[in-house]
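> run fold Fumarate/nitrate reduction transcriptional regulator Fnr
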Amino acid sequence: MTDDNAVSASPMHAHCQTCRLNSLCLPLALGLEDLDDFDAIIRRRAPLKRGDTLFNATTPFTHLFAVRCGSLKQSVAQAHGEERITHFYLPGELVGLDGLASGGHPGRVEALETTAVCAIPFDQLDRLSVDLPELRHALYRSMSRELHDDRHWLCRLAGHTAESRLASFIIDVSHRFKRCGFSPTRFRLPMARADIGNHLGLAVETISRLMSRFQQAGLIQVARREITLLEGERLAAVARGETSLRE
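> ok
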């Protein structure tokens, strides 16, 4: 996982045609000629280092970003001055779609580790999609998937126990790693436990206690940030609230 997720030696010279994540990104249904047209508008940025900001709440919406490798988190300021982590972004996922409606971004996005992204100028993407309906449909699918995932996640959080929330989070990350071609049963969590707790509305002590409980129950194996799923179906049952380890 670590080697697969490493930044290539020359991220500025990558191309959509050779990117192993292109089946997850917008050029999914494009032919070779159309793929060249799409590739021509992409801007490959220098990799972000851990803690570097991709954009913040004062940045105008001009680009979408596709995560080539690494991971990011999005934080939104709350009324009482604290920040809530609303999203984590993994390889193959698009960042910035939520800025389209307002012309600005709802919060700050920063790198959790060394991360490479492709910057896609939205005005050029919009013009190109007029001539490439497959590209337009791919953009709609990406928007729809983000809405679906957000609503599904809110349903998982609403009224669920701390145990169920963390189990849901681990299952969700497993599915997302599987979608981008990584192992769904053994993966490294790029985010700290404090970030997971912030995202789930739980104390970091609760996250650590539940990780230990899951491990003691034989559901997962934990080695620092590396997670091995041992009993995925049982963990999914905990996530759905069908069973509890306290029973």
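The CA atoms of residues 219 and 232 lie 7 Å apart.
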